[in-house]
Give the backbone structure.
Amino acid sequence: EFRRVLFRSDIVAVALDKSRKTFRTELFAEYKGTRDKTPDELIAQIPLLENFCSAIGIKIITADNFEADDIIGTLATQAKDFSVEIVTGDRDVLQLINDSTKILLTKNTKVEIYDGEKFFAEYGQTMGQVLLTKENAVDEHARENCRNSLMTMLNMGAIPVINENDAVAVD
């Protein structure tokens, strides 16, 4: 499936974390504080990924103070007129599923394609119902951060808009 996305897409981009410091860690010092240090083996592979992407014309997008997930979410919501397929191993990105956005969830060498129908079949709820449940379950501070993170990135111009001028043909 990944090869299909890579070589059949009009626009392909890779979002990477720039550092562990984000606007969330500035607001809440313990944010992801229990996470292990990024393995040296993974850190060593990042330059290889960057070189590969550069060699085949894939744009890498990073932003100071934002996570790759923030970039992915922003671009997916801006791509209203596109069919979007996000390749990730992070289940949190499932919240981006809608009529035009599918998630290709990776686990080891397997890829599962999630759209609204698959999500409902697996969880018995639509994504909208899950988001409403989550919003009602978290405290006001966390709820406000979730609501504002996308608008903050857009208003700060921290995330570049991918448009026809930025498109990279990979076919």
Summary: The helical segments are 2-8, 23-27, 40-56, 68-78, 116-123, 127-137, 140-156. Confidence is low (pLDDT under 50) at residues 158-171. The beta strands are 13-15, 59-61, 84-88, 101-107, 110-114. Residues 40-56 form the longest helix (17 residues).
